Amino acid sequence: MQLITEGKTGNFMKRIWMYLKSYKKESALAPAFKMLEALFELFVPLVVTVIIDRGIDGGDTPYIVKMSLLLVGLAIIGLACSITAQYFAAKAAVGSAAALRHHLFSHIQSLSFTEMDTLGTSTLITRMTSDINQVQNGVNLVLRLFLRSPFIVFGSMIMAFTIDVKEAVIFAIVIPILAVVVFGIMYLTNPLYKKVQAGLDRILGITRENLTGARVIRAFNQQDEEEEKFLQANESLSRMQRFVGRISGLMNPLTYCIINGAVIFLLWSGSFRVDAGDLTQGQMVALYNYMSQILVELIKLANLIISVSKALACANRIDDVFAVKSSMAEGTAAAAASEAPSQDTVLEFKNVSLIYQKAGEESLTDISFRVKRGQTVGVIGGTGSGKTSLVSLIPRFYDATKGEVLLDGRNVRDYTREALNSKVGIVQQKAMLFKGSIRDNLRWGREEASEEELMEALDISQSREFVEKKEGGLDSFVEQGGKNLSGGQKQRLTIARAVVKKPEILILDDSASALDFATDAKLRRSIRDMNGSPTVFIVSQRAASLMYADQIIVLEDGEMAGIGTHEELLKGCAVYQEIYYSQFPKQDPAAPDKMAGGKRGEA
Predict the structure, then answer these.
(1) Exposed (0-12), middle (13-18) or buried (19+): which is 491, by Cβ within 10 Å?
(2) Which of 69, 104, 297, 524 lies at a CB distance of 3.0 to 4.6 Å from 152, suitable for a disulfide?
């Protein structure tokens, strides 16, 4: 998969327009009021002209007062138009940015784990926040200034021609020169701003990694090394920002030099014509005012172009994410209650292999097995042997590269996402809880679950005791990520959340690692006695957690080293023997029975 980074501006402008369609009135009124303000502003030099030529020259004080009041009126009307334009522009920009952010979030949610892994969390966060904020600012400025500034510039030139054609030629020469400077700088800075945002991605990635791994960093005394790493990335970003800032910074001095040079030439040539009587003093002041207006508006236009350059660079980055499509096509089959007997095959792997995106070799190779309804299946193996990869294929977090995964005789690719999720419940290695109450977190499994069903799930997951001790019970507060709970409490609540769902297949991916042996045994016994007898997959490093499973799958380097019961594997599977005897004394085979909690039927 490759991000598309060229030729996206046009597509994104269409996308922005799609969001602005909901704000047609605001998008039209904002520039309309700005144009109205600009129109009143263009009248000001003409009023000043008559004040000088007729009022001051003729000593007509009442006329001066009347025209001065007209200037005040023009200023008040212009201010009212400006505020109104700002209101409509802000409403359209914020509203369209909110819609864009919602659409982008929905699109990210639709991506498979493969695309999420490839894109990376830090860049997605940057594009959801900083990039969209830049686009919002760009839309706001465009609605207010994109028409106003060129209107003032060319309007001033036209008004200058109405006053004096010879002097107005200076305007006609200066404006194209300024356009070359402004758009040349825009052409140079646009790709550089994109590199700056990419540098911001790197900074965010390092910051996120350091904050989430703060305990590990301190435990290994790596603060200095991490600070140095952050300093280097920050300095690299700063250098890039300074470089692009220097180029952008040329905008104002260059435009000032050109405009002030034009003003000097205008005053020099105009002074001779005033002496000759071809121009009045008021007309000369009006021409100077129009040149000053061009200067002010070009500064605004320069800042607008810098902001728009940033916004376009960010817009292209956002569109890169939209260009990425999920590699998993959703099926059309709905979940249906199985009509098969309880001992029929519920799950089958047929010659399944898996290669992760951009991985050099297979993570799983030619895996084949069958699971009957209601069985408990253990998955064991060394670190990196492919245990999590195997169970991740069942809820279709990833698609098998080769072979088929069949659920109730149908390929998991054929199910709709909703149908597959209703059949499979999974508790992943990292216990993740969300900010809210315990009740809210449990109802992620099934929103309509009753109080009795929630309490039953707590009983099964061995959570009820500590939940009832908390103030508020089910309504007690859970901080983001479950930071106010211990590791074992978080694991048990995530198991309860999956149990509330009442799935046909329950996958526990090393989700009891923080539990002691006794609690682990009680948990497995409760799950075995659940109503409906779900098919259970238990991924664990502990042989004691799996030895009473109906069948145990042993993995080594992505291949199936053995499959069978504990007794069968202990006799004929060298990999399982190595794992088992590394945890229990070879001379005391009865030890696990005492630690694990009884007979096979009780596990």
Answers:
(1) buried
(2) 297
CA 78 to chain centre: 40
424-427 β-sheet, strand order: 424-427, 505-509, 535-539, 376-381, 551-556, 559-564
Torsion, CA 430, CA 431, CA 432, CA 437, rounded to 10: -170
What is the rounded distance in angstroms from the CA atom of residue 299 to the CA atom of residue 258?
A: 12
100 with 19: CB under 8 angstroms?
Answer: yes
* Average pLDDT score, the chain: 83
The residue with greater pLDDT, 101 or 199, is 101
Q: Which helix (H) or strand (E) holds 528?
A: helix 517-528
**Phi, psi for residue 183 in degrees, rounded to 5:** -75, -25
145-154 pLDDT tens trace: 888 888 888 8
d(C-alpha 23, C-alpha 21), whole Å? 5
Which of 253, 261, 249, 254 is closest to 291 using CA atoms? 261
Q: What is the rounded CA–CA span in Å between residue 546 and residue 321? A: 42
Enter the tokens of residue 352: 């399944």
Closest C-alpha to 505, from 406, 364, 358: 406
Report whether 565 contacts 528 (CB < 8 A): no
Three-state DSSP class for residue 407: strand
Least confident of 134-148, 253-267, 445-459, 549-563: 253-267
Torsion angle defined by CA atoms of residues 485, 431, 591 and 600, in that order, rounded to the nearest 10 degrees: 120
CA distance 347 to 410: 9
Contact (CB, 8 A) for 492 and 520 = no
- Report the sign of the C-alpha dihedral through residues 515, 516, 520, 526, in that order: negative
CA angle 572, 578, 582 (to 5 degrees): 140
Give the pLDDT confidence of 395-410 residue by residue, as tens digits.
988 889 999 999 988 8
Q: Which residue is associated with the tokens 């690719």?
A: 413
Distance CA 169, CA 159 (A): 12
pTM (predicted TM-score): 0.71
Name the phi and psi angles at 575, rounded to 5: -65, -45
Residue 11 pLDDT level (bands cut at 50, 70, 90): low
Q: For 38-78, what is each residue's pLDDT tens digit?
A: 888 888 888 888 888 888 877 788 888 998 899 899 889 98
Q: Which helix (H) or strand (E) holds 381?
A: strand 376-381
Residue 353 bridge partners (DSSP):
402
Instruction: Count other Cβ atoms within 10 Å, centred on residue 332.
Output: 9
Residues 282, 163: Cα–Cα separation, whole Å: 10
Q: With residue 108 as reference, give the H or E element that holds it.
A: helix 61-110
3-state secondary structure of 160: helix
Look up residue 455 and give its two tokens: 């309490």
Phi, psi of 134 (to 5 degrees): -65, -40
User: What string of H, E and C letters represents the secondary structure of 276-296?
Assistant: HCCCCHHHHHHHHHHHHHHHH
Parallel, antiparallel, or unpaired: how do β-strands 535-539 and 505-509 relate?
parallel
Residues 316/9, Cβ–Cβ less than 8 Å: yes
Whole-number Å distance between alpha carbons of 22 and 19: 6
Residue 219 C-beta-side C-alpha neighbours within 13 Å: 5
Residues 6+ apart with CB under 8 A from 523: 460, 461, 462, 492, 495, 512, 515
